[in-house]
Design goal:
46% of the residues lie in helices and 8% in strands. By secondary structure, it is of the alpha/beta class. The protein has 3 domains: 48-92 and 95-224, no CATH class; 247-350, no CATH class; 356-530, von Willebrand factor, type A domain (Rossmann fold, 3-Layer(aba) Sandwich). The strands form 2 sheets. Strands 5-4-3-6-7-8 form a 6-stranded mixed β-sheet. It has a two-stranded antiparallel ribbon with strand order 1-2. β1 (25-26) and β2 form a beta hairpin. α5 (123-129) packs parallel to α7 and α22 packs across α23. The longest helix has 18 residues, at 60-77.
């Protein structure tokens, strides 16, 4: 009788997030906890960590300390991998603060251990690689001096100087130079002494220093944008709104490098409909997304709103914007008008382009325990269970046959018998994703309580019926061992949304794989792994 040459045989595959095969620790709720290797723990923490923000189980300071330690360990053991990761984290994952902090800790670890400079990429190049916006040189300096002191090493200065040459121009000076910042552009120039690529850039540096030191030198002739802004600033406040009614108002604002924030300051008052309509053509994608409520409250015309909606819904612009999927849900909840709904739904769907179409039958368990109520946006309006619901419903909608179930544990906070608390979600064919997420929220699918993952699996998984199990969670299961209740032959895919130290199952080989983050990128691995293709890091 054949033991290996059978129809269910599959090629052995691996995925990048790996850890131990038997649990050596516990989760925060006392379940079996599987430790991961340094790279895997670092990756999951980085792609879920909003630096300085608390989570349910881990204070922000402790998470940041763990992150710095992991970056330091990875920088010493595999500097080339770590450098690629930090660049990807900024350029593709669009997680700005985590990448800046990571680059600083990368360099700090290598300098304090005297690692030979010829091992891996230069410290200078790593600093330069994560600085992609003109306010970021000052941001990195502020982090370094607040954590490691005012003695800034040469590789950090030189990496920042390289970035300054790429990033500092007239528009950047107008947008990002402010007395409200600890390191103004002039301070950065004073400290790192960047070279200039052109005579005009050299004059820009001198002007930034003049601004910083309150010197009343005239703006050089070569800086046309700054001179145009100065001309607008010289217009008396009483006459400024009248200029917005001219046919060329948008072009005048564009030539002066005016943003919507600076326009409000120039007008010395709120933006009315005419002001918004004049500045909207110059606004970037993210600025449009965050101001939909303001457009409605000001009474922006339907014609202008249609143009905004078309830009928001354009898949090319969605991809170029690198917005997290949750930003579209946040905009949807903030905007009172229905005129944005279809565009935001199309944008959200486009931002989830990596969510695959899966054949067979898929069970999707969405963790909505109280720990998933942790916020990951600065204002606390976006929760980890919001992200879990978006990803779970999006995946369910793409599957040929899917059951989507919200789960927690009834007995932790409620006077109910021990066991899982679950609520199956009825998928409706043709329903928009935003409408489904609204229904999830309004119909009580955010359950609260503990995290009885093993109980939810035992209650809903039918091994002879389902082809795979996907769990979207922070992995902090209570009691028992998640891995033990899932048959070895059943593929278990865990989507991690919090990045705690211990996971709830093995990962990296066989039928056990973990992905993570606040974007959809990892979901594309599922069909590839099932097709017998091993997957590596996304960078």
């Amino acid at each position: 009788m054949s033991k290996f040459n059978i129809t269910s045989a599959r090629p052995a595959v691996t995925s990048p997030i790996t850890g131990e095969h038997t649990p050596s620790g516990v989760t925060h709720q006392g379940g079996a906890g599987y430790a991961r290797n340094t790279k895997s723990e670092l990756f999951l923490l980085a792609v879920t960590n909003m630096v300085g923000e608390n989570t349910f189980y881990e204070p922000g300071g402790k998470r940041d300390e763990r992150y710095a330690q992991l970056v330091g360990q990875a920088a010493l053991t595999d500097p080339a991998w770590t450098a690629r990761f930090l660049r990807w984290l900024r350029a593709e994952a669009n997680l700005r603060t985590a990448s800046l902090v990571g680059a600083a800790e990368f360099v700090h670890a290598r300098l304090t251990t005297d690692q030979p400079s010829d091992q891996g990429p230069s410290n200078r190049s790593v600093i330069d690689s994560v600085l992609l916006r003109a306010d970021e040189p000052g941001e990195l300096l502020a982090y370094w001096t607040s954590v490691h002191g005012r003695n800034v090493p040469k590789p950090v200065k030189r990496g920042i100087a390289d970035a300054v040459r790429r990033l500092y121009d007239e528009r950047a000076l107008l947008k990002w130079d402010s007395a409200a910042r600890g390191f103004r552009m002039g301070d950065v120039i004073d400290l790192v002494h960047p070279n200039s690529d052109t005579p005009a850039q050299g004059e820009l540096y001198k002007h930034a220093l003049d601004k910083r030191h309150n010197r009343a030198n005239p703006i050089p002739e070569s800086l046309a944008l700054l001179r145009a802004r100065a001309k607008l600033t010289a217009v008396p406040i009483s006459g400024r709104r009248g200029l917005l009614h001219a046919d060329n108002a948008t072009e005048v604002l564009r030539e002066a490098g005016m943003t919507w924030e600076s326009l409000a300051g120039w007008l010395q008052g709120p933006l009315d409909a005419r002001a918004w309509e004049a500045i909207i053509p110059t606004m970037g994608y993210m600025a449009l997304l965050r101001n939909l409520r303001n457009f409605d409250e000001a009474g922006v015309s339907d014609g202008v709103a249609e143009g905004v909606a078309a830009r928001l819904a354009d898949p090319v612009q969605v991809a170029r914007s690198s917005q997290l999927p949750m930003r579209f849900l946040s905009a949807h909840r903030a905007a009172p008008s229905l005129r944005w709904g279809h565009a935001l739904d199309k944008a959200l769907t486009a931002s989830l382009a990596n969510v695959p179409t899966l054949d067979g039958r898929t069970l999707i368990l969405v963790d909505t325990s109280s720990s998933m109520d942790s916020g990951f946006s600065k204002d606390g309006t976006l929760k980890r269970w919001d992200a879990a619901a978006v990803f779970g419903i999006a995946l369910g909608g793409r599957c040929r046959n899917a059951e989507v179930v919200s789960f927690s544990s009834a007995h932790t906070y409620l006077n109910e018998p021990p066991g899982p608390k679950t609520k199956p979600f009825a998928m409706r064919k043709g329903e928009s994703l935003l409408r489904s997420v609204d229904r999830w929220k309004s119909d009580g699918y955010f359950l609260g309580g503990g995290t009885d993952t093993p109980g939810a699996i035992a209650k809903h998984l039918r091994p002879r019926f389902h082809n795979r199990l996907v769990i979207i969670t922070d992995e902090q299961a209570a009691g028992g061992d998640v891995n033990a209740v899932v048959p070895d032959t059943m593929p278990l895919y865990t989507w991690n949304l919090a990045g705690y130290q211990h996971g709830h199952a093995p990962s990296g080989s066989g039928n056990r794989h973990t992905f993570g983050g606040l974007t959809d990128a990892g979901f594309r691995m599922i069909p590839l792994l099932e097709a017998g293709r091993s997957e590596n890091w996304p960078f």
